[in-house]
Fold this sequence. Notes:
The protein is α+β, with helices and mostly antiparallel strands. The chain has one domain (3-21, 32-64). A two-stranded antiparallel sheet has the order 1-2. Helices cover 40% and strands 24% of the residues.
Amino acid sequence: MERKLIIRNFGAITSAEIILKDFNIFIGEQGAGKLTVTTHSPYLLSTLNNMIEADNVSKLHPENVHEK
């Protein structure tokens, strides 16, 4: 599954679409938003991965999903 991080108007980043691999290197000018991506993306991706996994499990086992 391809993992793509799309960022709009966050920190120094106006717009970015980043395809994430197992290993990524961010190169750019000072103030371009490299630290913003590397600091926040692991938390965002972890949350998204958990949400995707929960959705996949709910599709495999709909009898275990409880509506609120």
